[in-house]
Amino acid sequence: MPDAAAPAVQRPKKRGRPQKGESGGLRAELIEKSAQLFRTKGYDNTTVRDIAAAAGIQAGSWFYHFKTKQEILAAIMEQGMQRSLAEVEAIAALPLAPSAMLHRLVEAHLHTLLAPDHHFIAVLLYEWRSLDEDSRERITALKDRYEAVWDRAIAALHHSGDWLMPSQFDRLLIFGALNWTVQWYKPGSGADVRELAHQAMRFILRTPAAVEAQ
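== TetR family transcriptional regulator ==
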């Protein structure tokens, strides 16, 4: 009886020119891997070869999606800002009291900062000066819309009388405090993002625990 034919060995497919139907997925993967590398190594210290290796592709394949490293830096920031803007604009459309509105915005901002797969915000904060002028203008327009949502929420809270000691620098002070959490917050350290947002609101509104309990 003849031996059964041996099954064909599947050779790993080389990742060269993107195959039909996979281009969008590969582009998204390049953005994700680049964001991770820019966050950990820095933009200047990350090479195109580093990005290609992280994505598991040949170095030349990278250029089917991005002509320069500058383009992928802009894509990371722009895509991240678009997602964050959509989230806060959806919150702003809800029928919430001013303090509840600000609380939701604080929690959303902290989630954007601290979620394990959200590398773009660290890149945005620390690699802003690496952007070219055209990219900076596009992303600045998104940032302006994001900040406008906060400005309206803060103004409403000022007018409500629930903010004991408001100031003209509230948004800047809030962003400064929240953005710094990326330097010290550790998941599993005793407070999740929701609890951190609650404590942040007490700090922002300068609300003593005794008053909060009333």
